[in-house]
Structures are given as C-alpha cells and as structure tokens.
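dumping this here so i dont lose it
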C-alpha cells in the first residue's frame, strides 16, 4: 500500500505540532513512535534499541525476530476523545522475500528501548543495554541480567488475536495497517494510558529469509519513520453557564444555549463558580428594613433571606422589636363625672381614635381606646373600679374621628363583608364580659351605635367580686374593633375580699395579654379578609410590646387576661417559680391553688399571686409563653415565647401570707338541673369565605335555647373540630362539671373513659371554658335575675365573628313553654321583649345623638 507523498508530508507536519501541544479542535493527528525495538530469538540478550531499523521474520539461520513499537497516544489526543480510525504506516526498507502477512498484536507488558545499536544492516542485533527489550527480558538490566524483568512468555506477552494485519511486499515502500482492532487498542491506550505497551510486529515467516526490515523513529530519513495517524472526535467542549439565580449548568461550548453568563470552555459547575444572587433580606429592626443582598450577607447581618432574586419591592419585612425595653403601663383608674371610683358613680367613656406609642422603637400607632375625659383615650381603656351592690352608670360615647377630626364614616381596618352583620362602618357596642347585667346593657351585638351616637348603660354590680373586662362586641366586626384596642378592665370588689389582706394597691396589677402585628410605619396589621385565626408576631401587655415591670421583693396579685383574638397562652416563669392561683373569671376560689403554669385562652382570666420575695435585687424573671398557635396544635409551632419581664428591685414588698382559705363558694348541684343541652362545635363551609364556624350547625339568628328564669341547666360543649374553643356564656357564671374525651370515627359521638372533674384551679366561677378537640365539657349554670337574649360563643374573635356565636333567651317560667315551642316568629319576639321590659327595671339603654 502506497501512501501519497504529499499527504504524508502534511501528516508529518501536523504530527510534530501534535507532540508539542494537545490539539483541542483537530480531529486527525499523526503520532511518531515513542519507542521501538527488535527481539532476537537466537540470543536472549540481543536487541537493537537505538538502531535505525527493526525486524520481523526469520534470519537466514531461521532464527525468529519480532519488532516492538509504541506511540504516546494520550500525549497527542485529548482525553475523552473518541477514536474513529487508526492507520499505522511503516516504511519497509529491506527484505529477501515477497508478500508476507505482518500482524500487529497488542502487547500486555511494559518494555523498553535502550541504546543498543546493531552495526551494518542491523539484522544481527547488538548487546542489550539498560532498558532494552530482548527475547527474554522486557527491560534489560546490564548489572543483573538474570534478574531483569522478564516476559512471561519469551518472545513477548501479547494478545493472541492480532489487532491488525497487512501484507508487506516489495522493499522501499510504505505499508499501512488499519483495523477495528487497532481502533480498540488506541482507544484503550487513550483512556488508560498506563496500559499502553504498543504493538508487537510479527511477520508470518515460513521459510528462512522470510523477513521484513522497517525504519524506526531513529531513522535519519525522517520522512520514513513510523507514523500512527489517528482520526478522532474530541470530547464535546463544554463550559459552565450561570443563571441569574446563581444556579450552574454545564452547556456545550460556545455557550449559545446558556441563558445567563457563559463561563468559558472547560469551566464546570464543581465548585459552583456562579456569583451568589441577590434577594430581599429582611433585617431584624423596628422599621422592617429590607435590603437586597446575597443570602450569605443577609445571614451575616442577622437578617431573614426572602429567596434568590426576590426584591424588596415584593417583600414585606416584619417589624422586629427588642423585648423588655418599655416599662409596663398600668391602666389608669377611670374617673367618673359624678361619684367616686369604687362607689356609685357615673362615667363618660368615649371611644376615640388616638395615637399611642406601643414600643420604644415604633412610630406611634393609630389605635382606638376609651377615654374618661373630654379628649384623649387609652388602649387598653381605663380600669373601672366598682363594688358589689354599688351600681354605676356609663355613658358610652362613640367619638371615633378620622385624622382630620371629622366623625368617622368607615372603619379604620378593612372590613370583610362575609361574616354575618359585617359592614364597613365604625359601629361599636360595649359588652361587659363577666357582667351579670340586664340584656339591655349587655352590649347586644346588634345594638351598635355610630360616631356621634352614645348609649347609657346602668351596671347594677349585683354580683360577687371578680375580674371583669369590657370590650367591643359589634356583630361581624368584633375582632376588628378589639384589635384596634377596644378593651379594658372592670373590677368588682367587696369588703369580704378586702379583709383577706391580699396584695393590693401597687401590689395588685391587671395584665391584659394580647398579640399584634405591626407595619413598619407603626400601624396595626390585620388581614384584609376574614381568616380562620389571627396570630400576631408580638405580644403586648397592657398595650406595650414585651414590657418590663420593676417589682419589689414580695407578693403581687396579677389579674391575668387572655385578651388576644385567637392566641392562647401557656404561661410559666423563667425561674420555675409557681403561681398561686386565687381566682377565676368570677372571683375567688375557695382556697389558693399552687400551679406551675397558667393556660389562658381568649376571654379567660386568672387571678394569681407571684412571690418575688426570695429573689435577689436585679433578678430578671420572664413571663414566658409556650402555647402553640393554633392551640393545642403542634408543640413549638407558632409560639411567641416572650410575654414580659419582672425585674426585682432592692425594696421590701408585700410579704403577708396568703390566707389558706379565701371565700366559700356555692357549688351548683347537677340534681337541680332541669335541662341538659348539647352544643356541637364544628367547622362548616361558607359560600362567601369558604369556611365558617358553627354551633350545632346553626347561626346567630337561630334562637333555640330558652332557659327559664331561675332554672339550673347543664350545657355540654362537644368539640368536633381540631382546635380548642374557649366557650363563653353571657349573663351567667358557670361551674365546670367535668371533661370527657369522645370518639366520633363511627359517625356518632361515643364518650371514652370516665368524665374527669376540673382541676382545683378551674373549679371556681367561670364564664369562659376551654373545650379541647374531641372533648365534651359539661358546665352548669343558673339563669337568674334577667330575662332576654344573650350571646354565647367561642371567644376566639375570628370564630365569634363568623359564626360561632349564637344567643339564648331567658324567659319567664310560666310563659316559656308556649312561645318557645309553638311560635318562633315575630309574635313571640314581641311578647318576649315585653316581658323583658317588665322585668328589667334597673337599667335603661338609649341611643341618641351626641
Ligand atoms: Cu368577652 Cu361575648 O364576650
Ligand atoms: Cu361576655
Ligand atoms: Cu372557636
């Protein structure tokens, strides 16, 4: 086979280049031999390493010779290339015979080329030198020939099947070998260069003088040296592509497919070379500052990263406030216009929109509060101090005005119109929670009044002392009005309680615990549409975010109010100190009860004593919360742990002992109950808002409970939902009879186990009770003194507004059966209103323009 000279020269030129640099785009390369040699069978230590020729075939003495030749494939072809074809070209310069098959076999062990150089025509070989391959040895060692690394099989270790064969004929011509087997060999040498031992060249010699002599890579005629031409496909060139979000993908060079920034040929994604993207980062400060930076930098600044490529324009950063920097506000005692606080008196209490600073670092917040003077108002409202048997009168005045001083005509917050009774009006009505009062002054949710209007409520205070609170109760928007701030304490006292010597004066503090979320401008943040629950991200006590309170070394009486819309509190002290609970919503317990925690759902109150006498001055004692939100929920989920901090001062406080008995309590007897009513608490669906909370599947206008005046009844609250509902009844205080779990997987309610009586701290007069999921809570109440319609409801305000609030109507015994059962219409209503009017003689309710 002849090779055209022109082509050959071109190949050689490229070969020289190829040996110098690894070509990255060429697909054909000619490679010169890296080493070659001849092994002579007649003597185990003959070779011809540095000679100009190598031989295969028989000498005239019929002694075998074999050639060896190798090429540095990996040095000339980029790793990862695919070998397409291989051509070995040798120049044959001397022979004594005609055509002869010459085979190439893949050699399986390393061999070498030394400096041996035979003389003359070189056919007889020369003494092997260091590193030469001989018939016996792969790598001859002049100093220790017998221990030179030897072939396993003298004459060379090679694959039995030839990789390629060519017929070699006349001398002075080029011959070429090209085969699939050689492609396989070269690919293997490229992929695993350590196995590249080249080929052994074996002439298919039969007769003596069947021999072929080939020029070696030392031949002085460079054009006749061995050449291996390899056609290959280089590995696809790739590079890393950085997307804007910092993710890296490998794409084909030159990166035309890269959506982003191509990093150049040969770059890869490990490690990720892409610049970290920016995103919105919320810094933990009072203004909800947002910066656009990387996640790493955001973390370094203590911020909360909002995600790659998010922007501050699209992010709302929460206001993060430092706890315990503001002193606890103590609501002022409401000042009457006639009479004295604590005695019979008349008050003007105006509901006004004011600015109030709720945390050191917040701009003033627009709130709605109650004011006892001609201007101003406070959130929470001033505390009404009253005494059993001493009635008071309150003129509740709706004086809500906008920033310009005009009476408001709409609500401050967005009003979702889905809940029953919701309207976008600043309508209000004041309910005295825990008040045993005539229906006309109870703050009937539909008896709302607008800015410029006022009502006068007479509160008889014919009830035991207790921790009451007043708050808004407008149908459909109670949660919004209370969230704006409309709540305050109303304490009822008497001489019996005063004689107990409980901590009083500066040592008696009412604590309204609530949660709120703020916008960076200080305004209150509340969802625009009705939600199942609302949980604020900060906790306020008496209208300050996470306040501190300096306490003297002694006992304090704290009247704790769960005043949140939805959030239940599970309160403990950071020191592990106990609380001594002395009362519930409706007044003192028969005896103090020491508890390690207080669970306070919306609406409930706990009257507790904490003793700071044993703590050194400077001690910080935190009131902590661990209740999940929603409740009971999953431990840890939704918890806001801080509530407030007590700091012990170096001053003596109230150190008198707590009496071991407080106040005898009448225990209602189940045997006196004339009626047992069931109330199933469950979630329903609603076409407007999706969901709605229901009691017995009924709504506000469905009046089906008509307790007779003076009757004792047992009410069973049966919670078929996944949330605890704090159930509240107006008019009455009740006692908890027991709790029992139930199973409803069968479709009907099957009580499990035996009913458990309430723990002692819950065995007092109550008006709100926790009903846990899958629990039946039985309460007993006596419907005394007043007839008329009163609400009972879940005190989670989001539930109360939609539509977990219904009404019972107390009726006169004689008249009860007939209308309640036979008429449920207008006639009955008129009749009952008439009855109510006859019974209620000590109260009046009027609406008139201010
Ligand atoms: Cu405190 Cu009907 O509510
Ligand atoms: Cu109430
Ligand atoms: Cu509820």
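and the seq i came up w/
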């Amino acid at each position: 086979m002849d090779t055209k000279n022109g082509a050959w020269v071109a190949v050689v030129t490229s070969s020289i280049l190829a040996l110098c640099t690894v070509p990255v785009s060429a697909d054909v390369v000619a490679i010169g031999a890296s080493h070659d040699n001849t092994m002579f069978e007649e003597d185990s230590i003959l070779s011809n390493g540095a000679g100009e020729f190598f031989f295969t075939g028989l000498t005239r003495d019929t002694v075998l010779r074999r050639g060896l030749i190798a090429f540095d494939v990996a040095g000339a072809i980029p790793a990862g290339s695919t070998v397409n074809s291989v051509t070995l070209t040798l120049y044959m310069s001397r022979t004594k015979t005609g055509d002869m098959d010459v085979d190439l076999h893949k050699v399986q062990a390393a061999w070498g080329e030394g400096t041996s150089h035979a003389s003359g025509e070189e056919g007889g070989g020369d003494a092997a030198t260091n590193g030469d391959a001989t018939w016996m040895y792969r790598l001859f060692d002049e100093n220790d020939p017998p221990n030179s690394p030897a072939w396993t099989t003298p004459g060379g270790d090679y694959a039995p099947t030839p990789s390629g064969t060519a017929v070699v004929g006349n001398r002075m011509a080029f011959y070429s070998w090209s085969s699939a087997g050689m492609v396989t060999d070269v690919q293997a040498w490229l992929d695993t260069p350590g196995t590249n031992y080249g080929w052994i060249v074996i002439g298919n010699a039969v007769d003596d003088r069947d021999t072929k002599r080939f020029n070696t890579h030392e031949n002085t005629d460079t054009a006749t040296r061995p050449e291996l031409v390899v056609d290959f496909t280089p590995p696809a060139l790739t590079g890393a592509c950085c997307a804007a979000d910092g993710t890296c993908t490998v794409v084909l060079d030159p990166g035309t497919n890269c959506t982003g920034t191509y990093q150049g040929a040969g770059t890869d994604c490990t490690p990720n070379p892409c610049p970290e993207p920016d995103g919105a980062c919320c810094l933990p400060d009072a203004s909800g500052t947002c910066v656009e930076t990387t996640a790493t930098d955001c973390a370094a600044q203590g911020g909360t990263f909002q995600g790659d490529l998010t922007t501050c324009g699209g992010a709302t950063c929460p206001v993060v406030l430092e706890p315990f920097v503001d002193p606890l506000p103590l609501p002022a005692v409401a000042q009457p216009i006639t009479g004295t606080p604590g005695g019979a008196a008349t008050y003007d209490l105006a509901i006004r929109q004011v600015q109030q600073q709720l945390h050191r670092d917040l701009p003033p917040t627009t709130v709605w509060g109650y004011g006892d003077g001609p201007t101003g108002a406070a959130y929470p409202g001033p505390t009404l101090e009253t005494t059993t048997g001493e009635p008071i009168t309150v003129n509740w005045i709706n004086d809500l005005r906008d920033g310009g001083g005009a009476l408001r005509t709409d609500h401050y917050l967005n009003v979702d119109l889905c809940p029953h009774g919701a309207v976008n009006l600043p309508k209000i009505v004041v309910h005295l929670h825990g008040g045993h009062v005539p229906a006309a002054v109870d703050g009937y949710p539909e008896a709302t009044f607008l800015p410029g209007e006022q009502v006068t409520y007479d509160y008889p205070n014919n009830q035991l002392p207790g921790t009451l609170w007043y708050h808004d109760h407008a149908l459909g928007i109670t949660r919004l009005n209370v969230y704006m701030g409309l709540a305050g304490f109303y304490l009822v006292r008497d001489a019996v309680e005063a004689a107990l010597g409980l901590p009083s004066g500066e040592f008696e503090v009412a604590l309204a615990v609530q949660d709120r979320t703020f916008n960076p401008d200080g305004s209150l943040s509340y969802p625009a549409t009705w939600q199942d629950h609302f949980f604020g991200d900060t906790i306020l006590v008496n209208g300050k975010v996470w306040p501190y309170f300096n306490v003297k070394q002694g006992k304090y009486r704290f009247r704790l109010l769960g005043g949140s819309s939805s959030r239940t509190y599970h309160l403990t002290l950071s020191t592990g100190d106990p609380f001594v609970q002395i009362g519930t919503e409706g007044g003192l317990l028969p005896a103090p009860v020491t508890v390690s925690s207080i669970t306070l759902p919306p609406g409930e109150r706990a009257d507790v004593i904490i003793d700071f006498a044993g703590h050194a001055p400077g001690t910080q004692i935190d009131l902590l919360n661990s209740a999940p939100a929603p409740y009971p929920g999953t431990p840890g989920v939704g918890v806001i742990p801080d509530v407030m901090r007590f700091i012990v001062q170096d001053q003596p406080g109230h150190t008198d002992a707590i009496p071991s008995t407080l106040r005898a309590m009448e225990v209602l007897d189940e045997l006196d109950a004339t009626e047992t009513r069931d109330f199933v608490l469950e979630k329903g669906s609603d076409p407007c808002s999706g969901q709605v909370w229901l009691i017995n599947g009924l709504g506000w206008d469905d009046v089906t409970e008509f307790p007779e005046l003076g009757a004792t009844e047992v009410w069973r609250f049966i919670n078929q939902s996944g949330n605890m509902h704090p159930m509240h009844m107006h008019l009455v205080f009740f006692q908890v009879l027991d709790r029992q779990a139930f199973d409803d997987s069968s479709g009907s309610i099957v009580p499990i186990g035996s009913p458990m009586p309430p723990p002692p701290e819950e065995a007092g007069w109550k008006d709100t009770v926790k009903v846990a999921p899958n629990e039946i809570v039985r309460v007993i109440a006596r419907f005394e003194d007043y007839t008329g319609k009163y609400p009972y409801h879940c005190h989670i305000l989001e539930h109360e507004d939609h539509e977990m609030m219904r009404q019972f109507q107390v009726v006169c015994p004689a008249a009860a059966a007939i209308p309640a059962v036979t008429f449920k219409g207008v006639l009955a209503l008129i009749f009952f209103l008439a009855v109510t009017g006859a019974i209620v003689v000590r109260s009046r309710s009027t609406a008139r323009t201010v």
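Residues 546 and 644 are 5 Å apart (CA to CA).
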